[in-house]
Design brief:
This protein is α/β, with parallel strands linked by helices and 316 residues long. Helix content is 28%, strand content 19%.
Length: 316
């Protein structure tokens, strides 16, 4: 069976490593590994299109080094919708101010918006916040794909694994009508990947999950991409994570919870300049307000200092 595309999502490229990966000796090298594996998989016999379900970047505003890195490491023939992390302040109207858009303008990636096709398949992209609509083109022999950055989940027995996000209105069955006519639906935003079919009928629903393991609770998670075949079937391909360096200690887990709960943290950062000193002061002020324990404070600050030190070494 002929391969016609590779499916992925939630790459979340970032200049600094997340806390759970702060022990990596070189974060950029760690990010390179899955991207090079993805590129090799897409090369195969020919240059297969790579379709991405969004959140290419972890933050919409990135240092030039990270944009250059993405230009060099992303596979050619790369198409993506925009996730909320790619959009300035989650706003589609401000997309041209983003690092994502810089890659679009440079030709490194192509925005999946509206219908695109290559003779073997046709796909329609839906950005974060955009409503999915049923297929509105005449039936043809090519594989038709819906690409959307929208949180969905599938449960074997209906129980929710994430009480906050795995609500009934986020279950993929709610989208049955909207996915009518598509052969495949590629989703992003849910970092836990899955592959399923709705009531043994098409479409195949592939939620790619995170490409880079970034959080302590993902230590045992196996990142995957999907290989799409000419008959519309999808086969998961699990990436090699044997070189990943992880810290999933309870202190790191607590630190991640603290960072998640700092609702005003990003608001403060938006008011600051670009210097590391300003960033550190914002972090310290936020942790003071949250009365963060010494152990957790040390983990967060040491991760910041390590990343800043590595960057200074490479700029010499």
């Amino acid at each position: 069976m002929e391969k016609i595309a590779v499916l992925c999502s939630d790459v979340h490229l970032s200049h600094t490593p997340p806390l759970a990966r702060s022990r990596e000796s070189d974060w950029y090298e760690a990010m390179s590994r899955p991207l090079l594996e993805l590129r090799d998989l897409a090369r195969d016999d020919r240059c297969l299109p790579v379709l991405c379900g969004g959140d290419l970047f972890d933050r919409w505003s990135c240092p030039p080094r990270l944009i250059t890195f993405a230009t060099k490491r992303l596979p050619s023939n790369f198409y993506s919708v925009m996730g909320q992390h790619d959009m300035p302040y989650h706003s589609w109207e401000q997309r041209e101010s983003s690092a994502f858009w810089t890659l679009v303008v440079s030709g490194t990636i192509k925005l999946s918006s509206g219908w695109r096709g290559d003779g073997k398949m046709a796909w329609r992209g839906f950005q974060w916040g955009e409503e999915i609509v049923p297929m509105d083109r005449e039936p043809d022999p090519v594989v038709t794909i819906c690409i959307a950055h929208q949180y969905v989940w599938m449960g074997i027995d209906g129980r929710a694994a994430n009480p906050v996000l795995d609500r009934r209105d986020n279950h993929v069955r709610v989208l049955t009508g909207k996915l009518a006519g598509y052969d495949v639906a590629l989703f992003g935003d849910n970092h836990r990947g899955f592959l399923g079919r709705m009531m043994r009928k098409r479409p195949y629903v592939f939620n790619a999950g995170t490409l880079l393991r970034r959080h302590a609770d993902e230590r045992d998670y196996a990142p995957m991409v999907g290989v799409l075949f000419e008959d519309g079937s999808v086969e998961p391909y699990h990436l090699d994570t044997t070189q990943d360096v992880f810290d999933s200690s309870e202190t790191v887990r607590e630190a991640e919870r603290v960072m998640l709960n700092l609702d005003s943290f990003l608001d403060e950062l938006q008011k600051l300049g670009e210097t590391g000193l300003d960033f550190r002061r914002a972090v310290e002020a936020a942790m003071d307000r949250e009365q963060v324990s010494r152990a957790v404070r040390r983990v967060i600050l040491e991760a910041m200092e390590k990343s800043d030190g590595d960057e200074k070494k490479k700029s010499r």
